[in-house]
């Protein structure tokens, strides 16, 4: 089974838990089709989630000795109800599975030709600096889940790149972030992992419980939109969408007041003076 080695292009295995969305739209398609799948309102306004808090749970992340790692792996494997075991390697590293839930609000961009990548393509280092002449955008299915088989040295940034490569997503990896999700006292807490953190190590420390720890891929929200991360066609589309939303909002307001004015005039017409 493939492993993701640190310092190299990640190779991985994934299992599907849902199907890919059929909501495609091209940046060269008509404006109406574009608006059907992508609005500025749904892309940039972050809706509050009352049940979630972006806070860090302070549970210890100790550095384990080789004997402690071996014991932890035995305990982990004894608690799982599937064949997603962890295994210790001769060099002291260990391999195992992590599950990542994709909770993306915005559509992702892929090459217009939806040809699946070959084995040779997956072994090549990903180069997203190359210009993509024509892109297709689509929404990933809500709460899509992927299982990745990785090595303990695999860092969070490599996990993100592996997920994007699997879907042939050409968006800048910096647009996305990997979060750890923890449930505690009927509250859900999210913490963004740094690029260097090792998800499998966190999985081993927390145990197999999804309430104790799970992983979520989300947009890399920093409080402000990083406009430099978008391409020129994307920015031009955003401007067109914003203009149309503004025009539609103005039209709705004018229509509302015109309707109120008409009702008042009708009411006045039915009354006699005095």
Automatic annotation (TrEMBL):
Renumbered residue ranges of the record's region Disordered: 1-29
Comp. bias intervals (Polar residues): 8-27
PROSITE patterns linked to this entry: RA, SARAH
Annotated SARAH domain residues: 224-271
SMART domains in alphabetical order: RA
Domain Ras-associating: residue ranges: 128-222
Protein name (Swiss-Prot/TrEMBL): Ras association domain family member 1
Origin organism lineage: Eukaryota, Metazoa, Chordata, Craniata, Vertebrata
């Amino acid at each position: 089974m493939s492993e993701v080695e640190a310092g190299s292009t990640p190779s991985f295995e994934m299992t599907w838990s849902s199907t890919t969305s059929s909501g495609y739209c091209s940046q060269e398609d008509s404006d109406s089709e574009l608006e059907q799948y992508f609005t500025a309102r749904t892309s940039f306004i972050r809706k509050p989630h009352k049940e979630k808090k972006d806070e860090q749970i302070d549970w210890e992340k100790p550095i384990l000795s080789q004997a402690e790692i071996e014991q932890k792996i035995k305990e982990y494997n004894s608690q799982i109800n599937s064949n997603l075991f962890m295994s210790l390697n001769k060099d002291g590293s260990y391999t195992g599975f992590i599950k990542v839930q994709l909770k993306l609000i915005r559509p992702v961009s892929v090459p217009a030709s939806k040809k699946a990548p070959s084995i040779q393509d997956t072994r090549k280092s990903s180069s997203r600096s190359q210009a993509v002449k024509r892109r297709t955008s689509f929404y990933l299915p809500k709460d899509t889940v992927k299982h990745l088989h990785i090595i303990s040295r695999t860092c969070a940034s490599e996990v993100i790149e592996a997920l994007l490569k699997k879907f042939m997503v050409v968006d800048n990896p910096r647009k996305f972030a990997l979060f750890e999700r923890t449930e505690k006292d009927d509250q859900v807490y999210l913490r963004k992992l740094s690029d260097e953190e090792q998800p499998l190590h966190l999985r081993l420390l927390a145990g197999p419980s999804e309430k104790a720890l799970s992983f979520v891929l989300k947009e890399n929200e920093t409080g402000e939109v990083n406009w430099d991360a978008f391409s020129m066609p994307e920015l031009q589309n955003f401007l067109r969408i914003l203009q149309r939303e503004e025009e539609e909002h103005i039209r709705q307001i004018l229509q509302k007041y015109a309707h109120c004015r008409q009702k008042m005039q009708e009411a006045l017409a039915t009354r006699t003076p005095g």
